[in-house]
Amino acid sequence: MKGAGVSMTAIAQTLGVARSTLYRTLD
Q1: What is the pTM assigned to this prediction?
Q2: Strand (E) or helix (H) holding 27
Q3: Burial 1-27, CB ≥16 within 10 A → b, else e
Q4: Runs of H (alpha helix) within the chain
Q5: What share of the chain is helix, strand, coil (3-state, %, to 5)?
Q6: What Pfam families does the record point to (predicted)?
Q7: Contacts of 10 by beta carbon, 8 Å cutoff, 6+ apart
Q8: Distance in angstroms (rounded) separating the CA atoms of residues 26 and 3
Q9: 18-25, Cβ contacts within 8 angstroms, sequence gap of 24 or more
Q10: Interatomic CA distance for residues 10 and 24, integer angstroms
Q11: What sign does the CA torsion over 12, 4, 7, 26 have?
């Protein structure tokens, strides 16, 4: 289950980067 927690954190970080990149592109 420790691996699942790490992947969840990685997914959250990836989504955050993608979101900031998307807003930067739209802006």
Answers
A1: 0.52
A2: none
A3: eeeeeeeeeeeeeeeeeeeeeeeeeee
A4: 2-26
A5: 95, 0, 5
A6: HTH_7
A7: none
A8: 34
A9: none
A10: 21
A11: negative
